[in-house]
Amino acid sequence: MWSLHYPRSDATAGLAVVKIPFDPPEFAIGLAIFCCMPTTVSSGVALAREAGGNAALAIMLTVGTNVLGIFVCPIMLSTYLATDEEISLDYFDLLWKLLVTVLVPFLLGQVRR
Question: In the chain, where are the structural domains located?
């Protein structure tokens, strides 16, 4: 029987991080951006193996969240950073850049295989 526990509490932590009065305030912005990003394959698999989990499932979840992150991260960043008047993000511009730099090379590699 598989036990699947894949929390993304760090993504919701981005909302709280933006409200903390850090000095300098740019630290909160950087930390909120960090909280929005999906995990890397190496850390996801390493943590799963260390905990005695299923490495194949960890790879599948990590790749899935990275592909999903292309669409979700711009929304989260726009939401988290909308409270700061100095930062303006265009959702569609950011989405387009992520599609071109991440998804298109990934799909081309899969087609070439």
Answer: 9-112
